[in-house]
Design brief:
Helix content is 24%, strand content 27%. It has 405 residues and is an alpha+beta fold. The protein has two domains: 2-96, RNA polymerase II/Efflux pump adaptor protein, barrel-sandwich hybrid domain (OB fold (Dihydrolipoamide Acetyltransferase, E2P)), CATH 2.40.50; 186-402, Chloramphenicol acetyltransferase-like domain (Chloramphenicol Acetyltransferase, 2-Layer Sandwich). A six-stranded mixed β-sheet has the order 10-19-18-17-13-16. The chain has a five-stranded antiparallel β-sheet with strand order 3-6-8-1-9, with no helix packed on it. Helix 6 packs across helix 8 (381-396). The radius of gyration is 28 Å and the shape is elongated. It starts with a strand and ends in a 9-residue tail after the last helix.
Length: 405
């Protein structure tokens, strides 16, 4: 038996360190070659690293949420077979000969532990088996409870599990402490920076999207023949292309420390996207050069890449204005947080059918609120209102989205 010390590899693009986002294994677990080992995160890109060898996890050297330098030891594996003779290159992931570790004695039942440490998979196994973690002695580092500890506990006589006496049934008033790490921590830092440094103001307007929805429905068959799903966001993006040239200070980023506003001639549209790991903002570049079909296809592509964890760093940076929508869950209004260092964010809300008065008659129309937030250091209230009114006019008369100026 020998050991293999796995070190953080160079994940590319000049990265010198990375955050350990999540471990897929725990000490004592058996891993196969190419089995997912750990997720590491650089800025907003998360990379899944697999195990180069099969073995048993002896120890983990860097906890989830901590930073590790390229070349730092991440995990030690016990592997079968003797290591090859020779000198190991510094920083290489290669077998290292060590003395066999003595077998750990089986943990004995202990008193109640109010804060047991265990991985999510161990907690799930204990919950399914109705095994109280606070009564299980852990054999892992720092008393961490491993899978074999749970199985050993389940094999004990009932009297040993109960500590010799039946505990009264009580309500669960425990508090679970969850360390915020990985993408969720990046999101928290980004939101804190935006709210701390940007004086937001939000403007909400009502839009009649009846004609827009009729046009979208009419074009769906043509979109399907092109392999494109024509979502309302494509029309909102088209409206931004028509309106932003009249308001260049809105399609911009602001460096508050340097006091410099960078107005962009190109429109790089951020698409706020909910992913399994949290909110991400992939970017549709050069929106002004895309037609309706290309815009719809690119919105779908970058959103899917973000949800699947395949978006590149370039696809997750460089936006000049952001569009955010929760679709049918969008509510009646919102106060969207600006994607720093941008100066504006546009948020379509839920579309509903509602009775409205048109030319003295009550009719049913499809109505949607549009919520937009602006950086008041750069965008005055009058300009924000005029910009939203122009978007409203374009969306309520959708033919104007396609008429050349």
């Amino acid at each position: 038996m020998s050991t293999y010390v796995f070190k953080l590899p160079d994940v590319g693009e000049g990265t010198t360190e990375a955050e350990i986002a999540a471990w897929h294994v725990a000490p004592g677990e058996t891993v196969a070659e190419d089995q997912p080992l750990v997720d590491v995160m650089t800025e907003k890109v998360t990379v899944e690293i697999t195990s180069p060898v099969a073995g048993i996890v002896r120890s983990i050297h860097v906890a989830a949420g901590d930073m590790a330098a390229v070349g730092a030891a991440l995990v030690t594996l016990d592997i079968e077979g003797a290591p090859e003779q020779g000198t190991i290159a510094p920083g290489a992931n290669a077998p290292v000969a060590v003395a066999p570790a003595p077998a750990a004695p089986a943990p004995q039942p202990t008193a109640i532990n109010p804060r047991p440490s265990a991985s999510p998979s161990v907690r799930r196994r204990a919950r399914e088996a109705d095994a109280p973690l606070e009564r299980i002695a852990g054999s892992g580092p720092g008393g961490r409870i491993l899978h074999q500890d749970v199985e050993r506990f389940l094999a004990q006589p009932s009297s040993d599990k109960d500590g010799g006496a039946a505990a009264p049934a009580l309500g669960d008033d425990g508090v679970e402490e969850i360390r915020i790490i990985g993408l969720r921590r990046k999101i928290a830092e980004k939101m804190t920076q935006a709210k701390r440094s940007i004086p937001h103001f939000t403007y909400v307007e009502e839009i009649d999207v009846t004609e827009l929805e009729a046009l979208r429905t009419h074009l769906q068959a043509q979109a399907a023949s092109k392999g494109v799903k024509l979502s309302p966001l494509a029309f909102f993006a088209r409206a931004l292309v028509r309106a932003l040239p009249d308001y260049p200070q809105i399609n911009a980023t602001y460096d508050g420390d340097a006091g410099i506003l960078r107005r962009s001639r190109a429109i790089h549209l951020g698409i706020a996207t909910q992913t399994p790991g949290g909110l991400m903002v992939p970017v549709v570049r050069h929106l002004e050069a895309r037609d309706l079909w290309d815009c719809a296809a690119e919105i779908a592509r970058v959103s899917s890449a973000a949800r699947d964890g395949k978006a590149t760093r370039q696809e997750l940076s460089g936006s000049t204005i952001t569009l955010t929508s929760l679709g049918p869950m969008g509510g009646i209004a919102a106060t969207p947080v600006i994607n720093h260092p941008e100066v504006a964010i546009i948020g379509p809300n839920r579309m509903v059918e509602r009775p409205v008065v048109r030319q003295g008659a009550i009719v049913i129309r499809k109505i949607m609120n549009l919520s937009a937030s602006f950086d008041h250091r750069i965008v005055d209230g009058y300009d924000a209102a005029a910009f939203i009114q122009q978007l409203k006019s374009l969306l309520e008369l959708p033919a104007t989205l396609f008429i050349d100026r």
